[in-house]
Amino acid sequence: MNNKKPAVSDPMFEQLQQAFQDFQARADKLSSAYEAMQKDFKKINIELDKKNRALKESLAKQEEMQTYLNSILESMNNGVISVNTAGKITQFNKAAAEIIGYKQDEVWDKSFDDLFNDHTFTKVNVLSVLKSGKGHVRDEKVIWSKSGSPVPVSYQSAVLKDQKKETLGAVEIFTDLTQIKALEEEMQQKKTMAALGEMAATIVHEIRNPLGAMGVWASLLNRDLQDDEPRREILRKIIDALSRLNRIVTNLLVYCRPIKSQLRRVLLQDVLTETVNFVDIEIERIGKEIAVHKKWNDKCPVYVAADPEKLQQMIMNLCFNAVQAMPEGGELTVSCGKPKDGKDEFVHFTITDTGVGIEKERIDKIFDPFHTSKENGTGLGLAIVKKFVDYHSGYIKVDSVVNKGTTIKVFLPHAKKEL
User: Fold this and answer.
1) Between β-strands 405-413 and 395-401, what pairing exists: parallel, antiparallel or unpaired?
2) 306 and 269, same structural domain?
3) Cα–Cα distance between 118 and 370 in angstroms, integer?
4) DSSP per residue over 217-233, as a string?
5) Beta-carbon contacts of residue 222 (< 8 Å; ≥ 6 apart)
6) Which residues form the domain of 390?
7) What percent of the chain has pLDDT over 90?
8) Cα separation of 78 and 377, whole Å?
């Protein structure tokens, strides 16, 4: 007979056992959740890495694009200026700085109105476009540089907006028209001179005939008068006036008539020798105390591409102009040679006098037709020189000091071989 009693369960033990089982189940869940979270975190990290790489690539592309656009803006010949909605300058490229005269760091992020106001861009500017919301296409105006000089420009302007049509600011693009306006003025002057030439040629032919007849009659009358005849002096003045008038008409015809000649290879020393010798004889004839110096080396030939007749007239006109600038006498020096800088595209001859000189404000005008400071001058001698030099594709340099003298250098194309 078995006398052993059955085991009695311990409630505390069972509770602990149940709690442990619950804890184990929760720990398993947490472990599973942690593993799932790690997997999600890895996925997120991978996605973030992808996003970061994509963002870096996007930023690099944007930076590259910004650099590219800035490079384009800086290399443009057109000035570009833009402002944001607050009116502060956000773009001011190199061309704008050159045209207006301000440095880029002087204007960057400055208030457009405070910096420029109406004295630079007039009332039509990026601020007016920003306020009105209306741009301009292919218009012209004048802006004023920092130095205060006017600059004619063509321009176009527009309002800047983003993809949502929100206003970002305004931009103006402008181009310096100074050279174009100068060319237009030159072309207009050439058209005017061409029309004047046609008219002058007709008038000159009509005037020269009666002038010639009047000269012949005056000479015949002068021959019949006695040497002590009082009217002889009056007749001499008439003959001189007729001669001067004929000279003016002839010069006008030369200046206005189209040039028709063939350039060829000419030895500059030969033309200088012949022309200056004639000038020397003429100086002796009129009795002026002027010493003529000829400074060129005949053993070192200098050739130019020129029309010999036109070249001779250039030299002669410049020499006689120099003689007239020395009413009290002086020195006339004529020389020739290659430019000192070693370039051989041009050679030059130089006319120097010790006369009254030319004021600085007149130097740019002395080659204009009919501009003269002489009482009996026609204002066509130097204009003819300029016309002939231009025809030969040359250029002129003038240096002068009042009461000391003038030096005029004429540069003509160097003819290295036969044309």
Assistant:
1) antiparallel
2) yes
3) 40
4) HHHHHHHHS-TT-THHH
5) 232, 235, 236, 239
6) 264-413
7) 18
8) 46
**What's the pTM value of the predicted model, to 2 decimals?**
0.53
CA distance 318 to 325: 11
Q: Do 411 and 339 meet the contact criterion of CB atoms below 8 Å apart?
A: yes
d(CA 394, CA 415): 12
192, two tokens: 């005017």
As given in the structure block, the two tokens for residue 55 are 């963002």
The answer to whether residues 272 and 307 belong to one domain is yes
- CATH code where residue 301 lies: 3.30.565.10
Angle (CA) 178-183-185 rounded to 5° is 95
81-116 residue pLDDT tens = 888 988 898 888 888 888 888 888 888 888 888 777
**Helix/strand/coil percent split, the chain, to 5:** 50, 20, 25
How many beta carbons lie within 10 A of that of residue 369, not counting itself? 20
Same-domain check for residues 149 and 230:
no
Which three-class secondary structure state does DSSP give residue 240? helix
Do 246 and 283 belong to one domain? no
203 in the same domain as 82 = no
Q: What is the CATH number of the domain that holds 160?
A: 3.30.450.20
